[in-house]
Amino acid sequence: MAALELGDQRSRVLHALGSPEKRITRPTQSGRRLIAIGKKLGLSLNAAQVLIYVGVDVVLQHGSVLALVARRPYQGCTSSGLHVGMRADEIERSHGDLMFDNERYVWLVPGWPTLELKIRRIAKPNEQDALGGVEELYELQDHAATVYSIAVQRERELP
């Protein structure tokens, strides 16, 4: 994703994507994204850094890529052909039924345990329409709902 692979060194990221729009290196008030990603991935916040580009966040730990997070307007795709804006039914046709992970609040693709999807559908008239739709949780109500975020990360070592 973004011409990068998990484990790439920071220098490779900068060569491929250039200077980031923003860098978050400390878990401060302005670093809420680092705190949220850190908690989700189980990062040591002191060793983590997020490089923020248009549509892509690159999470580094100890100087190498630990996770990649794509969101709109990113136009690329994963090695398995998944991309932001893809419909849930397209993914299910090509990869099998999506599974909701109740602990991480993300959708998982069969065979890809380290790839996480966030899916949003158009709001119904009686629903709050926050950020351009309603997030699909637990079960897909609308199989035409689209992916708005893709995260891929290295598997964590179990304690």
What's the story with the biggest beta sheet? 9 strands, antiparallel
**Shape call:** globular
β-strand amount: 25-35%
| Low-pLDDT segments | none
Tell me the number of helical segments per DSSP (H or I, 4 or more residues long).
3
Query: What's the SSE pattern?
Result: HEHEEEHEEEEE
Helicity range: 10-25%
Short key terms for the protein model shown above:
9 strands; 159 residues; 3 helices; 2 domains; nine-stranded antiparallel β-sheet
What does this structure look like?
The protein contains three helices and nine strands. With 159 residues, the protein is of the alpha+beta class. The chain folds into two domains: 10-68, no CATH class; 88-153, no CATH class. Strands 1, 2, 3, 4, 5, 6, 7, 8 and 9 form a nine-stranded antiparallel β-sheet that branches. The radius of gyration is 16 Å and the shape is globular.
Describe how the helices and strands are arranged.
Elements: H1 10-17, E1 22-24, H2 32-41, E2 48-53, E3 56-61, E4 64-71, H3 88-95, E5 99-101, E6 106-109, E7 112-121, E8 134-135, E9 146-153
Antiparallel strand pairs: 1-2, 2-3, 3-4, 4-9, 5-6, 6-7, 7-8, 7-9
Quick rundown:
The chain is built from 3 helices and 9 strands. It has helices spanning 10-17, 32-41, 88-95, and strands at 22-24, 48-53, 56-61, 64-71, 99-101, 106-109, 112-121, 134-135, 146-153. Strands 1, 2, 3, 4, 5, 6, 7, 8 and 9 form a 9-stranded antiparallel β-sheet that branches.
